[in-house]
Amino acid sequence: MATAGQVATSRQLALALFDDTNAQGLPLDAARSDIGFARKNVLIRIIDLGVAARRLIDAAYFIVAQEEQVRDLYDVELDYFKWLMRYSSRNNAHLEQVITESQRALIQATASPDADGVKPFGSVQLIGRISYAGGRFQFRVPPDLIGIIRGPGKSHWLSLRITSLFTLSYARVMYDHLLPYADEGITGWFELDELRSWQGAIGAKAQEFKYFKRDWLAPATEQINEVSDLTLAYETRNEPGSRKIGRLRFRIQRKEMAERVLHTHEQAQELYKTLKQEIGLSSAQLNQIAADRDTYTDERLEQAIERTRFSLKMGKVSKSPAGFFMKALKEQWVVSDAERQMVETQETIAMSSRRESEEKEQQHTRMALRIAAQNVRAQDRMVDEIRRGWEAYEAATQKQREDWRRTYKGTPAGRLTLRRLGIDPVAELAEAIIQQYPDLKDGFAGYVFNKVKPAVNR
What CATH number labels 165-262? Predict the structure, then answer.
């Protein structure tokens, strides 16, 4: 954790950089619940950078940290980059001013004095070349900074979600300076000149504490308490032997996660993908949302997504899902409890109907199996009777054989079989003819079995 001396030496905003989760010193659940920057404990100053330009740098460094490989030129979709930096203006001229401002800003790093009392110093641009055209956004980051962004090192977690909510530059600066003290709960005593220097040039009136408090300190503290994961309070101390306030320190508490209601940039990416790929929003529609993010909050976007998905499932979206979504978003359509209950009831009825249908189908299947089994048994029995009937015929006397052949011709089954096979029913039914026709032999053997059945069963 940064010491009071280190923070005092850093006279401007500490650079918010990405770092590996293991280097953040955070619990796993915190690391999973939020994606953002890791602020290094190296003493780094950003000189005179506005809120919008800081968001641009945040978005660019986030992309650098998330890429699997180091790139000379980073290339992403323009709409996605605007989404990450929560850029709310459609004015490209203003975006170009923000780009120019971010390119002019320098990171100035200092460290503790060496043995000769000389304090090392270095500076580098925050970001290099930036261009956008054809819906793409391209930028370069100095190689030295890429090593810091992606490399190891002790750091303090800095949420992208929180920093994107700041509208006051001094609130953002103050938040970044005080965040290292969040776990300690209290800072050391800051000289007022040190607090004033965090912002850079703030005007001569700020030299008086009442104006510094009114125009800078109080509004920044109020915004930090409102939008961030910290709650601040401060106390003052007079200069020795004087009633003039000369020092100030902060007491800091972390809010509970439920109170913070943070939406991570991982969630922001998923939300963006849902709107772009699933719903099919155009660049113009995404820009329209981005231009009024104070109104179109993540919660409201998620409600409109749910309404769109629900209506698609119910078959109520006949044209453009994107158009339906935009209307649902603007008119704040939600899925009502009554609709949910209706769908649950319909699903319950449908499930019951499916169960009944499955039960009937199973009953029919069981019946068919029983019938098939009965048919198999009957067929087996018939084959057995034919075999036993023919055995009885072969065991009979010649006279008995002739008598059975003669009487078989007079039976309805015998006459039908002979007629079907084209055999003269008047002519003598010789054994050779019976052997010649399998159907005739089976029918005749069955006839013999029925004649001798009482004797066979004995």
Answer: 1.10.10.10
